[in-house]
Amino acid sequence: xxxxxxxxxxxxxxxxxxxxxxxxxxxxxxxxxxxxxxxxxxxxxxxxxxxxxxxxxxxxxxxxxxxxxxxxxxxxxxxxxxxxxxxxxxxxxxxxxxxxxxxxxxxxxxxxxxxxxxxxxxxxxxxxxxxxxxxxxxxxxxxxxxxxxxxxxxxxxxxxxxxxxxxxxxxxxxxxxxxxxxxxxxxxxx
Length: 190
Prior knowledge:
single chain, alpha+beta, 4 helices, 7 strands
């Protein structure tokens, strides 16, 4: 198989005041927490958002693993909707030490370029900072972090930096080149 170099950038905020929120987009855009852990819905979001940018690490997860992951204390899924239709999501994962990772973030391709991404990232980051208030027993958030890579959308890094995230690590690794799987097999032409 062919390998390609993939650059991964890790970014962080270390105080709630680091967040530079974007303006809300025009129109009927709402962000709500999917409070009932649903492997079906989470897998739909994962494949719909990440299918064109080669998110493949969770494609092989069986139902039980999805259910176990989503049921962990401090795992939250925040979903942006435009006029009632899911447009994108952010998955927050609390660590044991007061860190919260925005483990997955993105928009379904049809909703990109409509100013929803900055609003969703702003909202999700604010929810990462106040996550412990919804989960008794978790340490208060001291740090919110995420990573993006050269396979992600062209505006990802700019959006993160505009929201106040600062770069703290860069790595380049060779990865096997894989075709974009799409939200279902054959969704994207080769």
